[in-house]
Amino acid sequence: MSKNPTAPKTTAKPKTTAKAKPTATAKPTATAKGATKPTSAANGAIGANGAKAAAAAVSMADRIVELRERREEVIAGGGQQRHDKQHAAGKLTARERIAELVDPISFEESGMLATHRTTLFGMDSAVMPADGVVTGAASVLGRPVHVASQDFSVAGGSAGEMHSVKVAAVMRSALDNGTPFVFFNDSGGARVQEGIDSLSGYGKVFFQNVALSGAVPQISIIAGPCAGGAAYSPALTDFIIQTSASRMFITGPDVIKQITGESVTAEELGGPAAHAVRSGVTHFVAEDDHQAILIAKKLLSFLPSNNTEEAPFIPGHDDVERDESLNQVIPDDPKKGYDVRDVIAKLVDVGDFLEVHAGFAPNLVVGFGRITGRTVGFVANQPITLSGVLDIDASDKGARFVRFCNAFNIPLVTLVDVPGFLPGITQEYGGIIRHGAKLLYAYSATTVPKITVVLRKAYGGAYLAMCGKDLGADRVFAWPTAEIAVMGAQGAAGVVFRREIAAADDPVAKKAQLVQLYRDTFSTPYVSAARGLVDDIIEPSDTRRKLARALENLSAKREPRPPKKHGLIPL
């Protein structure tokens, strides 16, 4: 097996050298399928043991030629014409995708010569190189990974029995060796000619997705069609990167039109905008395969190889001390918004922050950055969108991210500026209680270092859901602008001082006076600090240094929990 089948070289037939030519048989000739047979002259000389003699007469050189020819046929996939169609559609081929993802000459292919065993419906004569999927191991940025790449040029990348067996096998190898798994999805769906065997193959892949979950990172790149049952494998992985040329759905537009009467295009139904903004299935959107691969590499750079390791430490030269620009980031008007990503950029090394799920539930920001070389996961309310409230989608988004970070030993930094949970009939009927409880559960179950910084508003149950001290935060810092209370001063004063306001000669002025009284009494970080719910009140410009020291002090954190199979998150 060559070390880099993604970039084959045409090899001329090797010449054989021998001191004497055989006299009993002539030189074997190759058949159309690569097998060899003796000439008619040789047949006359073989006699009763002719078959054994002919087999023994096939030289190693000829066998190597056959092997190379078979390998070259597999590497050619569906042929140049179909590869050209891939390129015309703005897509790379299966092997080109792997070659661009992995380090040079690092790919070792597995299952290269696998093929289907189906004979029905004309499949007995169907040739499907590698059974439509390329699998193997390699390295990315010097670290080992396992990878699978569906080949759309071979039967539309359809998934048959051996196709899925190969994928499941390389996934199992990723688990056994503790490496991330990356899967390029580009398939027309199940290979219907194989019937239940194809469906069984999907089940094998799904089972491995769950086995890998929480043990090694899984990244799906949707680079073409991904329909029907095939869509559930990406949904079981940790991150989905979807290209603009791809479509992903369970049932297509034609079936929906037939069953429900609804008209929708494939783009509207399963394009990246639909899943990155509306459904929340997609975490990253890429213009093309090239950008998708860059995102995958960037993402892998932040992640550990498995759940027994720490994330890569990337030493930098970024000073832990920063200028005082953070002191001006919070507007004086408590009702005015600001972009919390500006805060994050000033906290992470060289402003390097990879936002996850950027298009979905934008009222909550999650993503990865580094502080003095250590990977951290950020969860932050976004005041410029819905004032940073928590709703159904934001709760799901935050809970999933928190659980991923906990599974892979990534400390969490939570930036709080939340006015509460979003009120409304739609939210209540949609299950905001159940969904909000997911975030409470995720933080409470997390045992990695948890550091919370209250920037401004922190009201009610949403304050707790954003990892307050009582949910196990190891350090809680507050800026002087923090307002930690059961509810906002305006609402609280209306409840607490309702009679005084109603009896006043000037209710408006009286309410303003009592609102300020409530704010001075309760809506400050000093009350929480006095109760031990805030560890320190700090200047904003000192936040990066405080985080760096806390991460260092908490680097060896161990938090025992009661033995059990697993908790029951309110799904």
The unreliable regions are 1-42
Largest sheet: 8 strands, mixed
Helix content: 25-40%
> What does the overall shape look like?
elongated
The value of Rg in angstroms is 30 Å
Distance between the ends:
47 Å
Strand content: 15-25%
Number of distinct helices: 22
What's the average pLDDT? 88
Number-wise, the strands total 19
Provide the structure class: alpha/beta
Outline the structure in words.
The chain has 571 residues and is α/β, with parallel strands linked by helices. Strands 12, 13, 14, 15, 16, 17, 18 and 19 form an eight-stranded mixed sheet that branches. A seven-stranded mixed sheet has the order 3-4-5-6-7-9-11, sandwiched between helices. β12 and β13 (364-371) form a beta hairpin. It is elongated, with a radius of gyration of 30 Å. Residues 1-42 have low confidence and may be disordered.
